[in-house]
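#onboarding

Welcome to the new folks! Below is a worked example of what a typical request in this channel looks like: someone posts a single protein sequence, and someone else replies with the predicted structure as tokens. Don't worry about understanding the tokens yet, we'll cover that in week two.

Example request:
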Amino acid sequence: MYSELKNYIAKQVTIENDELENIVEKFKPIKTVRNEMLCNIGQVCNHFYFIKKGCLRLYEIDNKGNEITGYFALENSIISANTSFMLQKPSRDCLVSLEPSELLVINRNDFYKLVKSSNAFAHIYHQFVEFAFIHSQMRIYSFLGMEGIDKLKWVMEHEPKLLSRISSKAIASYLGMTNSTLSKLRAKL
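Example response:
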């Protein structure tokens, strides 16, 4: 049940088996249905997720009611509504399961206890924060000056699995364009 999480951790850091077991025992398995909301706007996020199977989407809704996707997480990755989880403030984001998913979830108290007590887990946490920051910066700076076709090419190069698994509407919101614009750009390629 926890083999994927154990493999994920072992790839990130050298760790003794006892410490690894101590970490994974804090995670609990859950299953979600398609479009299940794990954190909604205005809620305080108290959970962190490892994805065994499925896909989660983090998005916000702008003042015009448009969904703006910030991130997708697929198998063997971790995700949370980071700002809310870290600051314990009401979330500006929605975290939703796009597919029926199998997740391993850890609550915030256990998460931060592990960060303090386990150097290996602290290392994984710091890697995650660094990745989230770099990913956000890459998307912001890359997408600011890019034409729509270049944004699509960027996703094709850096995150190709998204195009085969995620709805066009969600991909379009990730790229900052309408679904019809995305369809036209796909047809050009």
